[in-house]
Structure formats: C-alpha cells, structure tokens
Design brief:
The complex is a heterodimer of chains A (about 400) and B (about 140). With about 400 residues, chain A is α/β, with parallel strands linked by helices. Chain A has helices spanning about 20-35, 55, 65-75, 90-100, 120-130, 145-160, 165-180, 190-195, 225-230, 260-275, 290-300, 310-315, 330-335, 340-355; strands at about 5-10, 45-50, 80-85, 110-115, 200-205, 205, 215-225, 235-245, 280-285, 365-375, 380-385. The longest helix of chain B is centred in the N-terminal third of the chain and has 6 residues, at about 15-20.
Chain lengths: ~400, ~140
C-alpha cells in the first residue's frame, strides 16, 4: 500500500440553495477542487461520489454516471462509483477512493459528496432521513431520526448527569464557529436560552439541538503521495482511516450511550496513523444533534465516557481549547447535506492543516481527524490527516 | 415506510401481533425480531434458531417524547417512544400508551398491548402491532 495525499478541495456554500440543482452543486464543487489541485481533467482515473438518497430527495438514481456527465467527463468515460451509507456516505466514498489510490490501481481520483434536500417539503425530508434507521423495527412504530438521538440523550442525562444546558452549549459553540465560516448555512451566533427555549422536536432535544436540512456539495482530489509534488506544495497526507458497522437499530446495542462503530473505527484509524487521541490537533465530528457531539468526543477518546457534558462546560472543544472540535461550525451550523457532510469535514481539515481557515483557523494544527456517522450509529468512518 | 406494500406487513404479523421472537439453541440467547443466525454462535446456529413467544413484560431503558412526528403519526403527537428491555433479554422500540407523559421514567415496568400503529390513509391497510403500557403498581 502506498501513501495518498489530498491535493485539492472544493466546497459550495451550504444552505437552502433553491436556485441550484443537484447536478450544478456537485459540478461546482468538483471544478473548484480540480482547479485548486492543479491537475488536468484528463488525468482523473475515477470518481467516487457519496450521496445518501438522491432517489428520494430529487428522484434521481444512477448518480455516479450523472456526476461524471455533468462534471464534463462524458467524452472521457471515466468510471464513477456512487457510495451510500446514510449520513456517512461521503466519508466512506473518500475511504473507497483512498483505497483505490493506495492500492496502485489509480493515481488520481476525485471524491464528491452531495445532497440536495430542499426539493422536497420538510416532513418528507424527515421521512427520508429516517430511512437510515431500521424501517421495520424502529421507524414503523413512529420513532423519528431526532427521536433516536433523543433517547440517547435521555439515557446520557440519566446515567452521567449530563444537563440540558450542556447540550445547548454544543449548539452555542458550533454556531459561534459557524459565524466565522463563509460556507456555513447559519453564519450567526446563538444564545443558550434560544437553544433551550426552541420548539421541542423530540424530548429532550429542541429545534436548535438539531442540524438543519441543507443543500450542498464538496469535493476532494486524491493523488498518490509520491506524485503530489508535481501538482502542489500544499498537499495533506492521509495517515489513518477506519470504518465500522453496528446494529441498524439502536435497541440492538449493549450500550445505548456508546457508538461502537465509532470506537472500532477510531481504534483502526489511530493504529494505522500511529497516533493517540491526545495527538489530534483539530477534529470535525458528526454533530447531527448536540448529544451526538458529546458522544463523539467520548467515543473518540478525547474525554472519558460520561465526561462529554463537562468537557463542554470546561471549554476544551472551543476554537482555542485543548482539542478544538468542529471549527467549521459542524453539521449544526455549517449545515448537513447528508451525502456531502463526510467530504466537507475532510475539506475543512485540509484547509485547517494548510493554515487556510482564516478566522476559524486552529493554531498550529498539524494532525486533524474527521468522524462521520451513518444515521443512528450503524456505520462510522474516521479519517486522520497530517500536514506535510 | 413504503405505502401499499401489504405483503411487507403481512409477513411480519407473527412478530408484531404476538411478539414471536426466536432463540439460539446453541447458546440460549433470545432475539426479537427473529434472526437467521445468532451473532455469537454464527454458523453453529444456522438451522438451530427456534421460534419462541415473548412475555411482553419489560422495563424502560430510555425514552423520548416525539413532538415533530412523521405525517402518519401527526395526529398522535406528542407521543412517547421507548426502548424496553424484555424479561427474556431482547430490547425493543415501541410507543408507550395509557400513561401521562410526565409519569414516564427510566426503569418503569411495562407490558405489551395490541394497538393500531398506523394506516395507509382512507382506503389503505390499517397496520396493527405492539405498544407498551405501565404495569399497574399495587399500593
């Protein structure tokens, strides 16, 4: 296996982009990434695209071919692969592309992530997101996607004394970061009382505990590390990658407050990278709900199980904290176009490691981690990158 | 949930009406819903999974109250949903009924009850299944 580097990033604005279509968004992100990397389109060996549910959100399957076509590669007949793993589709598309270059089969691949969620009404978006849950034994009985995370929150509060205020502080922190991110859906701060007093979605989670419904796309160019110098001086090396699965239904797990998909994927990625949680300088974690960030920082080993809430109080995850988490604003404030999220997380870490994150730049960031979860934790992918 | 797919509901009737799970005869572990093989015993369990009826008695492990409901459940909101650990071992996700929202607690004893879950609208099928209600505490 050979080393692989990220040599280009592209990201569209995230938000309710009513004037842009699915194909426009992914082509925009892809073109940005190609230009950023300095490669020529004719050097691309393959495309990998993460999309959770183009079929339900825009009525379009066959996404691999569509993306190749509208990115301008129809005459080159480049192989294009669509990857689906609910909200972890993007991160897993990246991992598949990484494997293809590491193996020597490909030299240069483009990774895309895309979701266009606002072409359906809000209640339909909720239904589609719930398709990442167990349809027969969870969703059938009336549980929603926020409801799954709400049950985790209830249990975490009961077992570890995590408070409503601590949950709300996750949203406050991520909005503060999002306010500094030009790509973010919510470029504004919020206050703890706004989060606590927001309309209830699924007790104990209110509207501002939830990531929004978003449109957006992101893209990355991967290149064999030995050839990266030819294109750019600012490549970022992939040093670890892990992926794991778990029971589709939350009730199938031994411990409701631990995502073993995260702990197993993390172990795999840390081992390959030969780093420990304390070596991570910056992380983008999957905060689809406020409780999810608390769970993530515990399962990734940044803090002890049960201490996630206190870590928020102690401000260890703020931009200038001990381990800055979600400098981009996270899914909460940057937005969560599900298929794009995993790719956008890596794009953010690449910008951080290049020192190009402007106002949200984490000081001296050398090693960064991304954590991307499928629906209620049935799949997870973790990638670790290092500045060169 | 896809609409109009009657076989899809019909084949789950034993589980949803009567809580039929299965048991690995290698290790004795009980599953709900039934599985093709036991994740602990894997190949040794193939062909050795016996159906069994569950008591429907259990305890609430955690819960939520759904305020923003899917379209088919809108008329019921707000309604509680819980993960319940059944006496025989498996955990199950279901609505809690016949209970004030404020009275639901982790650790509460509950038992299953047969109820309407949802329907496919005015002319479609009505789907039944299990919900859980508190076990009356003798005072």
């Amino acid at each position: 296996m050979r080393d692989v580097a990220v040599i280009g990033v592209g990201i569209t604005k995230f938000g309710e982009l009513w004037d842009k279509s699915f194909r426009q968004l992914i082509a925009e992100a892809g073109a940005q990434a190609i230009i950023d990397s300095g490669i020529s389109g004719s050097e691309i060996d393959a495309l990998y695209v993460g999309s959770m549910s183009a079929g339900r959100f825009v009525g379009q399957e066959h996404v691999g071919a569509l993306v190749a076509d509208y990115s301008g590669f129809s005459l080159m007949h480049i192989p294009s692969i669509r990857v689906e793993s609910a909200c972890a589709s993007g991160g897993i598309a990246f991992r598949q592309g990484y494997f293809s270059v590491a193996s020597g089969m490909n030299d240069i691949v483009v990774i895309g992530g895309i979701e266009k969620m606002t072409d359906v009404v809000g209640s339909e978006a909720t239904n589609i997101l719930a398709m990442g849950l167990d349809q027969e034994w969870e969703a059938f009985f009336g549980v929603t996607f926020p409801g799954i995370y709400a049950m985790i929150a209830t249990k975490h509060m009961h077992d570890f004394g995590t408070t409503r205020e601590q949950l709300a502080q996750v949203a406050v922190k991520n909005h503060a970061n999002g306010a500094l991110n030009p790509y973010a859906q919510f470029k504004r701060e919020t206050k703890i009382e706004n989060v606590i007093n927001a309309p209830m979605v699924a007790y104990p989670l209110g509207m501002l505990d939830c990531s929004p419904v978003s449109d957006g796309a992101a893209a990355l160019i991967l290149c064999a590390a030995e050839k990266a110098k030819k294109y750019t001086d600012k490549s970022v090396k992939i040093i670890g990658s892990g992926q794991a699965s778990d029971t589709l239904a939350l009730h199938g797990r031994n411990d409701i407050c631990t995502f073993e998909s995260t702990t197993y994927a993390a172990r795999m990625a840390y081992k390959q990278a030969n780093v420990e949680p304390k070596d991570i300088d910056v992380a983008e974690v999957h905060d689809c709900f406020t409780i999810a960030e608390i769970l993530a920082i515990e399962d990734l080993g940044f803090v002890k199980k049960g201490d996630g809430g206190k870590a928020i109080d102690n401000k260890i995850t703020t931009l200038d904290g001990q381990i800055p988490v979600n400098p981009s604003g996270g899914l909460k404030a940057k937005g969560h176009p599900v298929g794009a999220t995993g790719v956008a997380q890596i794009a953010e870490i690449v910008l951080q490691l290049r020192g190009e994150a402007d106002q949200r730049q984490v000081k001296d960031a050398k090693i960064g981690l991304t954590h991307n979860v499928g629906a209620g934790g049935a799949s997870c992918v973790i990638n670790i990158l290092e500045a060169r | 949930m896809a609409e109009g797919a009657v076989p899809r509901f019909w084949r789950e009737i034993p589980q949803r009406y009567n809580l039929i799970g299965n048991q690995c005869t290698e290790c004795g572990k009980v599953f709900f819903p039934p599985r093709e093989s036991c994740p602990d015993c894997r190949r040794k369990s193939i062909g050795k999974m016996d159906n069994c009826k569950l008591s429907g008695e259990g305890k609430i492990i955690t819960y939520t109250i759904i305020y923003e409901a899917p379209e088919k459940f809108e008329g019921q909101a707000p309604y509680p949903v819980a993960i319940i650990r059944l006496k025989e071992g498996p955990k199950i996700t279901a609505q809690i009924v016949d209970c004030e929202l404020d009275d639901i607690k982790i650790g509460m004893k509950v038992k299953s009850t047969f109820r309407k879950i949802q329907d496919d609208g005015y002319v479609g099928a009505i789907y039944y299944g299990y919900k859980f209600k508190p076990v009356e505490v003798k005072t």
